[in-house]
Amino acid sequence: MISITDLIHHRPPVLCIDEIVECNETDATCAMTVREGAFTDGECLWEPMLLEAVAQTAAVMSGNRLRKIGTKLERGLLVGVRGFAIHREVRVGERVVCHVKVLRRLDQFVLVDGRVTCGDDVVAEGQLKFHEVVGS
Amino acid sequence: MTPQEIHSLVERVLTEEFEIEASRIVPTARLREELGLDSLDGLDLVVALEKEFGCRITEGDVKSIRTVGDVNGMIELRLNEAGSAPA
Questions:
Q1: Where are the alpha helices (DSSP H) in chain B?
Q2: Are strands A109-118 and A95-106 parallel, antiparallel or unpaired?
């Protein structure tokens, strides 16, 4: 199984996802266990990190897709967020699962539907738009 | 769907999606220079148009679009190809 750091440029402490559950050209699922650190307040994850976790999951999907065609993701820029709602806090020690699904690709832009779940709870969801800068 | 009906729906997409005043949405209006859309807006425009008209828009379509009239014409072409335009 390919590692996350083979596909995306994020590194600790910003790298927050720790497992690729599933990944294909149009869908990806990654998981993250929330650990106490720079992005928690001691009890809960800093909420913007949920958005970051979805973005990293999308980056994994893009990186994997590009790797298969012999290139790589030089940079993936988050250029738009729409209707991203956070429904509840995530506590240190909880494990969340991030799902992304491609709604549309156009040129170097990709629009995804993102969702973060914790058990049966939908923790956060919304649309994200990325600009993929493809390397050689 | 008549050309006027297509224009009205395109106008609705542009006003609702990008908050452009309807009075500025005329066929000769250039999307970038006059209506202020940029490359980041292209994907949102395509998604909104596909949802509104139920047709598929290609990258080639997008690259040929400069004006509102171009959008109207491209939609009319796609609807005709899909056989959804009335005789």
A1: 3-18, 39-53, 59-63, 68-81
A2: antiparallel
Cα–Cα nearest to B37, from B61, B74, B67, B70: B67
**Contacts with B42 from chain A: Cβ below 8 Å:** 106-107, 109
Tokens of B20: 């452009």
Contact A131 B62 (CB under 8 A): no
Residues forming a β-bridge with A114: A100, A126
Residues of B in contact with A111 (CB under 8 A): 43-44, 47
Q: Which two tokens stand for residue B77?
A: 């072409």
Coarse DSSP helix, strand, coil percentages of chain A, rounded to the nearest 5 percent: 20, 50, 30
> Which amino acid is it at B81?
E
Our CA-based measurement puts residue A108 at a distance from the nearest CA of chain B, in whole angstroms, of 10
| R_g of chain A, CA atoms, integer Å | 14
pTM of the entire predicted model: 0.86
Torsion of CA A39, A115, A106, A6, to 10 degrees: 50
* pLDDT reported for residue B82: 81
Whole-angstrom Cα distance, residue B53 to residue B9? 8
- With a threshold of 0.85, tell me whether the complex ipTM lies above it: no
Percent of chain B with pLDDT over 90: 77
Q: How far is B40 from B62, CA to CA, in rounded Å?
A: 13
Residue labelled with tokens 């014409």: B73
- Per the structure block, which two tokens stand in for B65? 């679009």
Q: Which of A132, A49, A17, A106 is nearest to B63 (CA)?
A: A106
Of B14, B19, B80, which is closest to residue B42 (Cα–Cα)? Answer: B14
